Amino acid sequence: FEDYFLKRELLMGIFEMGFEKPSPIQEEAIPVALAGRDILARAKNGTGKTGAYVIPILEKVDLSINTASALILVPTRELALQTAQVCKKLGRHIEGLEVMVTTGGTSLKDDIMRFYQPVHVLVATPGRVLDFSDKGVCKLDKCKILIMDEADKLLSPEFTIVVEQIIRNHMPPDRQISLFSATFPVAVKGFRDRWQRKPHEINLMDELTLKGITQFYAF
Question: What is the mean pLDDT of the chain?
Answer without folding.
Answer: 92
